[in-house]
Amino acid sequence: MVTRLFFLSICLPFLLTSCQQSKKAVEFVDYVNPLMGTESTFAFSHGNTYPAVAVPWGMNFWSPQTGENGSGWMYMYTDSLMRGFRQTHQPSPWINDYGTFSIMPLAGELKMSHKERQVPFSHEQEKATPYNYSVTFKNGLQTSLSATSRGAVLEVSFPEKQGQYVVVDAYSGGSSITIDLEKRRVKGASRYNNGGVPDSFANYFMMEFSHPVIEYGTYNGDTLLHHQTDVAADYTCAYLKFDVPAGEKLTIRTASSFISPEQAVINFNREVADADVKLVSNKAREQWNTYLGRVDAEGGTDEQLRTFYSCLYRTLLFPREFYEFDSQGNPVYYSPYDGNVHDGYMYTDNGFWDTFRAVHPLFTLLYPEVSERVTQSIINAYNESGFMPEWASPGHRGCMIGNNSISLLVDAWMKGIRTVDAEKALEAMIHQTQARHAEIASVGRDGFEYYDKLGYVPYPEIPEATAKTLEYAYADWCIARFAESLGKQDIADKYYQKAQNYRNLYYPEHGFMWTKNAKGEWRDNFDATEWGGPFTEGSSWHWTWSVFHDPEGLSQLMGGHEPMSARLDSMFVAPNTYNYGTYGFVIHEIAEMVALNMGQYAHGNQPIQHGIYLYDYIGQPWKAQYHLREVMDKLYNSGSKGYCGDEDNGQTSAWYVFSALGFYPVCPGMPEYAVGSPLFNKVTLHLPEGKTFVVSAKDNAADRPYIKKALLNGKEYPHNYLTHDELKQGGELTLSMDSVPNLRRGTQPTDLPYSYSK
Fold first, then answer.
1. 717 three-state secondary structure
2. CA dist., res. 208 & res. 417, Å (int)
3. Cis ω before 688 (30° cut-off from 0)
4. Which of 398, 478, 678, 713: disulfide with 410, CB 3.0–4.6 Å?
5. What pLDDT does 24 receive?
6. Helix residue spans in 260-330 (DSSP H)
7. How many whole angstroms separate alpha carbon 165 and alpha carbon 215?
8. Between 465-485 and 489-498, two packed helices, what is the crossing angle to 10 degrees?
């Protein structure tokens, strides 16, 4: 009863929305393939995803595990052996996991170590959905798994006349397990992590078994200790043996907490006590249908719908909730920044360098309640650590560049999501530009002293200097916008001026962004195809376009709209050659660009993903329409090789979601969306306050990507952008699609989206 009440309480606000939607023969969640993007390797990524069984933004995910413990490649589609079912918090193979543990049912012989207990399986015998994963091993053992935010339920059917075991693996890094025979329970703590945690960090878990334990023992990484109930070591496991009668299933219920063992029990009782897989699956399915159903796409092919909703599923996984509810139902969290327990909200497992571009703007439009909590979380992190997060998993991690937490706050604020203290937020933003974390270069502003003195970050004095300069300039524009909204014009003017620093690294002789040293000298041997060095996971071909707030200013540097158009055009036809530069080898992003065979366009990584939309800013929207359809049609599919690079916490998915809708947030912080070419005949957005916005594309087809005419609420609409308010208020954008471009529409200065220099 407790479980049912809990689920009802979290689902009721959203069921009202879903009830207003038309009943579909195939529901939204049925289109999702969690295996999309799972056929990846270190050398070449088709997504680097794993099949996450979860609820949207859940604190814990669960996944089948084929790789060894500690491997970032937890599940690889090409594997044929399984090692367990793992509670995971992994946002990326490169960042890896923390606080994880796994459960592995075994039939026949007992094997403890993750290196030895692999069991053969095939994809023909597995079924993956967002709300359930089930598999039948080749030995006949069947497992079905469903998850809540903080718990999970597994059901196991053992083959007849074989030993029945369950191995609980608490991982390395300092773990402990206790077996309670009387209550048929196992309790433990996993301290496994890859950084970003205080000394007090632990994930406390408990699980309960439906049948009596007839034999048991523990393992400390070296020795199997039969009939021992307690173990604490660097690496620990426990085993339990059962005698489940034929025709019955062993049910395993589990939950965890980052706060305390007592809170793990609260989470257990609230979310999974007395629940079975069917109940949990049904409730999770309802949640997924509700959230996915805020976008109702019609008129595409079955494959397009599968790709679209699989991408939307990925977009709604991260950042994950890092908060729990105490015995009174109040949100509380263990801080991965100061190691204390606080009231309120905390989110983690996000690289803002990736997700500021499209993931969080999608939340501000369709899921503003999540944006409200995420922005509060960012300020909480600042209060507890002195810095806003840039890559959190679960605390500060050294990865990527920029001050993109600023973008998240400002974008939400400019769209009316104002649940943070404005003065505190401004304080945090300014501090982020005037300091650098003592140990983690990616937190704060690396090279800020140079940037403020010279107007750019120099190279080789500071690695990735040009990329940092461009990102800092955009962040400065965001701060200026925020300060101006508060009436602090002196601060705004200062940061608007700094927002023009991108100009200092434009190399007019070559027409690309390049780099200077601290003496103001251009670096010798210009090579637009050189990766690394002053750039981050890209070359000048990709980073030259990273002027989100001022494409018009960039075009002025290039000599005007026509020269900028010619440069963009050349990107798609230039030889896909490369110089791997300071990387010293072909990183997977390079390999993926070459494989795309689209010139120097490298959609598999973030710096260039907005680039196609820049045609809107120079009065040639038909070119954007053409290339967008090409990318959607050629570079995405719903299969195991569904992406053309890392999926990256929802960003590569969110690009597809927005682009399929027909618009994209090129410059978060400006509540506008550049118009593209919608993939579907009709899309209905179910917005807050019962509003709907419909994008209708008449005569849409694969060979008709061009917008011939546009009507907004029945009136001709010539602009290459939509405003957030226009979408939020509800209405209909009616597009007439054609096989030939309309060279007159969207060409006037008033038709172009915002640029600071316009």
1. coil
2. 41
3. no
4. 478
5. 57
6. 261-271, 277-292, 302-315
7. 9
8. 160
- Please, are residues 391 and 351 in contact by the beta-carbon 8 Å criterion? yes
- List the structure tokens of 613: 């939309």
Query: CA 64, CA 104: separation in Å to the nearest integer?
Result: 10
Round to whole Å and give the CA distance between 612 and 624: 5
Classify residue 348 by its DSSP letter: E
Cβ burial of 665 (10 Å; 0-12, 13-18, 19+) is buried
Using DSSP, state whether 437 is helix, strand or coil.
coil
CA–CA gap between residue 713 and residue 727 (Å, rounded): 11
Which residue type occupies 238? A
Contact 638, 35 (CB under 8 A): no
Output the pLDDT for position 21.
Answer: 42
Bond into 460 cis (ω within 30) = yes
Question: Distance between alpha carbon 260 and the CA centroid of its chain, in Å?
Answer: 27
Given this model, what pLDDT does residue 427 score? 98
Domains belonging to the chain, first-starting first, are 51-292 (2.70.98.10), 295-319+609-758 (3.30.2080.10)
Regions in the chain scoring below 70 on pLDDT = 1-25
Dist. CA 213–CA 398, nearest whole Å = 44
What are 119-131's pLDDT values in tens digits?
999 999 999 999 9
Cα–Cα distance measured from residue 43 to residue 633, given in angstroms and rounded to the nearest whole number: 24
Q: In this predicted structure, what is the pLDDT of residue 214?
A: 98
Distances in Å between the alpha carbon of 744 and those of 498, 563, 621, 752? Answer: 36, 19, 10, 13
> Directed axis angle between helix 404-414 and helix 359-366, to 10°?
20
Pairing mode, strands 692-698 and 731-738: parallel
Tokens 């689209």 sit on residue: 598
Q: Using CA atoms, how far apart are residues 326 and 256, in angstroms rounded to an integer?
A: 13
Q: DSSP secondary-structure letter at 162?
A: S
Task: Enter the tokens of residue 368.
Answer: 């503003």
| Residues 235/175, Cβ–Cβ less than 8 Å | yes
Secondary structure class of 689 (helix, strand, coil): helix
For residue 26, what are its two tokens?
Answer: 């195939």
Q: Cα–Cα distance between 719 and 314 in angstroms, integer? A: 31
The phi, psi pair for 298, rounded to 5°, reads -135, 150
List, as one string, the DSSP characters of 403-428: -HHHHHHHHHHHTT---S-HHHHHHH
pTM > 0.90: yes or no: yes
CA-nearest of 375, 354, 355, 371 to 363 is: 371
Q: What is the torsion angle, in degrees rounded to the nearest 10, for the CA atoms of residue 475, residue 476, residue 478 and residue 481?
A: 180
Spatial distance between the Cα atoms of 721 and 702, rounded to a whole number of angstroms: 22
Nearest to 357 by CA among 751, 649, 728, 726: 649
Structure tokens at 77: 């589609």
Contact between 514 and 466 (Cβ < 8 Å): yes
Residue 497: left if φ>0, alpha if ψ -120 to 50, beta else—which one?
A: alpha
Alpha-carbon distances, residue 563 vs 440, 554, 615, 746 (angstroms): 40, 11, 12, 18
Structure tokens at 189: 């703590």
What's the rounded Cα separation, in Å, for the pair 556 and 560? Answer: 5
* Residue 547 neighbours by CB under 8 Å, 6+ apart: 470, 473, 474, 502, 553, 554
Give the chain's radius of gyration (CA, Å): 26
Token pair of 171, please? 């991982």
Number of H helices and E strands in the chain, helices first, is 19, 36
